[in-house]
Design goal:
The chain has 344 residues and is of the alpha/beta class. It has 8 helices and 21 strands. This is Oxidoreductase.
């Protein structure tokens, strides 16, 4: 029996492993992917982080390269692999958890390979689980190519003709910017976009966030609630400039589509050849067979990652404690907190 099993070998699981090494616990990190970093590797090719390398590192190991530069997704993949090797973390890949149960004081984890037993479990599967695609997508003609942003790689996937990106997050923004160099691009968003520069007076915007203690704002603080309520801004000015130049055409919320026609909230309609759904993700915890872990919407019930079930924890959730809880820059702090709270 293990002291701890960590489900997920992404940035959250690796950070947790780092802190558990200090406690000399008998633990194992399991992950369904083939290799460390696959969840990053499989994203679109042009993906670049909006946090500099200085703010893109896990505890104990700084990411290589210019601290003020922005790392690519491939750099993150290499960094996570290096992190696991540097600290010789015990990891078992290609292990898919099918069910998680608890009998008395023991957690039972049934996987595609074996059944494991542990005194404690940390669920570190991250926020990007199931692609969320609106039901109206079923109305589209087979002549329209559609793909979720998580499965988009590059423009060669698309059919000739224009492209509509539905969703106003940073992934949708980066994809829209990329495609605008080769075709007509439309962007549909549900609310007004706010922009923040990547740097200010030659310092990363996240350096300023740290200096002004914005990064320290907790989820339940006044500032934290304001930030959460406003949603994430778009980092960088590329999209802003392309919108000004009308090289990307902005539309309000998409309300309907039929065959090849999309209709927006202002009643305007356009014919579309390609659609990229940058509409986020939903959680999938159907494999957890323990009551009181999830609320009615299927989301974890927790206080800074600590659940009502003794020995069961979550890590890497958006705003688990602060803005950076689901990011490379902040997950380590939450991992340390949980490690200190665990009691075997």
């Amino acid at each position: 029996m293990f002291d701890v099993i960590i489900i997920g070998a992404g940035q959250a699981g690796l950070s947790m492993g780092y802190h558990l090494l200090k406690q000399t616990k008998n633990f194992l990190i399991i992950d369904q992917n083939k290799k460390i970093g696959d969840s990053w590797k499989n994203r679109y090719e042009s993906l670049v982080l909006f946090t500099t390398r200085e703010f893109s590192s896990l505890p104990g190991l700084q990411m290589k390269g210019d601290p003020q530069g922005l790392p690519t997704k491939n750099e993150v993949v290499e960094y996570l692999g290096l992190y696991a090797r540097t600290f010789e973390l015990p990891i078992q890949m290609e292990t898919n958890v099918q069910t998680l149960e608890k009998q008395e004081n023991t957690f039972i984890i049934k996987t595609n390979k074996e059944t494991m037993h542990s005194k404690q479990v940390i669920i570190a599967t991250g926020p990007f689980q199931l692609p969320s695609i609106p039901s109206i997508s079923k109305n589209l003609s087979n002549n329209v190519y559609q793909v979720h942003s998580s499965e988009y790689k590059n423009s060669s996937q698309l059919l000739p003709g224009n492209a509509l990106i539905v969703g106003g997050g940073n992934s949708g923004a980066q994809i829209a910017v990329e495609l605008s160099s080769s075709r007509e691009v439309h962007l549909s968003i549900s609310k007004e976009i706010s922009f923040l520069p990547l740097s200010f007076f030659r310092k990363s915007i996240f350096w300023w966030f740290k200096k002004l203690r914005i990064l320290n704002a907790t989820a339940e603080s006044f500032i934290g609630k304001r930030i959460r309520g406003n949603g994430d801004p778009i980092f960088g000015n590329e999209l802003k400039q392309l919108l000004r130049d009308q090289r990307i055409i902005l539309h309000p919320r998409t309300i309907h589509c039929d065959q090849e026609i999309f209709q927006f909230e202002d009643q305007e309609k356009i014919e579309v050849k390609n659609v990229i759904w940058a509409t986020g993700f939903t959680s999938n915890y159907e494999w957890i067979n323990i009551s009181q872990v999830l609320d009615k919407t299927g989301n974890p019930v927790h206080s800074r990652g600590i659940t009502q079930i003794e020995g069961l924890y979550f890590l890497g959730l958006p705003w688990q404690h602060k803005r950076g809880s689901a990011l490379l820059l902040g997950v380590g702090e939450d991992a340390e907190y949980i490690a200190n709270k665990m009691n075997i």
